[in-house]
Amino acid sequence: MVRYLIDFGVDVNVMDIKRQTALIYACKRGNYEMVKYLIDHGGDNNIISQYGNTALSYACECSNDRIVKLLIDHQSLLNIHGKYGETEFIKGCKNNNIKIIKYLIKAKVNVNARDSCGYTGLMRACENGNYEIVNFIIENGANIHLCNDYGYNALILSSCKYGHFKFVKYLIENGANINEITINKETLLHVACKFDCFDIVKYLIN
Questions:
Q1: How many domains does the chain have?
Q2: Are 83 and 52 in contact (CB under 8 A)?
Q3: What is the CATH number of the domain that holds 71?
Q4: 174 found inside a domain
Q5: DSSP state string for 41-108
Q6: Is 110 exposed, middle or buried (0-12, 13-18, 19+ CB in 10 A)?
Q7: Angular region, 175: left φ>0, alpha ψ -120 to 50, beta rest
Q8: What distance in Å separates the CA atoms of residue 159 and residue 78, rounded to the nearest whole number?
Q9: Helix (H) and strand (E) counts in the chain
Q10: For residues 40 and 111, which has the higher predicted lDDT (pLDDT)?
Q11: Residue 8: pLDDT above 50?
């Protein structure tokens, strides 16, 4: 059907009421062959929807690494802050997809971009407990000292709150500030006690 419509002369970049194109729909569905066909026939992968997202944004949100690579290879815009201020990189970190993260970093994405609440990709990766991703993005320039709008850095918010002792140790060994104070005047030790992270408390005291 799509081939027939395109051969018949339909505009592949026509937008719906939410400024979404056929290409964006194909990305949201995770249909690689459809995405490739639309791009090969003039589909614009840099149209921004009503919610501030591009086709690449949706592909990252849906965690489809094949489509992400295809769109990056076709010069997709990077560092676009979509709904809630999330960039492609933050979405990749939230979805725990190391392939997408590697593609984006190779394309020179901003690894320290923040969403509308100040969260970074590193904070989201720490929440997920994926050591491979955390280690990789720190090695590629992720700033461990950044804090979100509530004064939580990756160490306090993402590691202690979610009980990832391995991350707490790793971040501290890499220079994370253990004396950071949140807007509620909480320190790392407060948060560790608050969430019953006894192994972290012992590590901090010793």
A1: 1
A2: yes
A3: 1.25.40.20
A4: no
A5: TT--TT---TTS--HHHHHHHTT-HHHHHHHHHTT---S---GGG--HHHHHHHTT-HHHHHHHHHTT
A6: middle
A7: left
A8: 28
A9: 12, 0
A10: 111
A11: no
Residue 106 in any domain: the answer is yes
CA 144 vs CA 5, 67, 74, 157, 172: distances in Å? 50, 30, 32, 12, 9
- Inform me whether the pLDDT recorded for 194 exceeds 50: yes
First to last CA, the chain: 67
With vertex at residue 203, the alpha carbon angle to CA 98 and CA 117, rounded to the nearest 5 degrees, is: 45
pTM for the model: 0.88
Query: Would 180 be classed as within a structural domain?
Result: no
Whose tokens are 């094949």? That residue is 66
Q: Are 32 and 40 a contacting pair, CB within 8 Å?
A: no
- 60 lies in a domain? yes
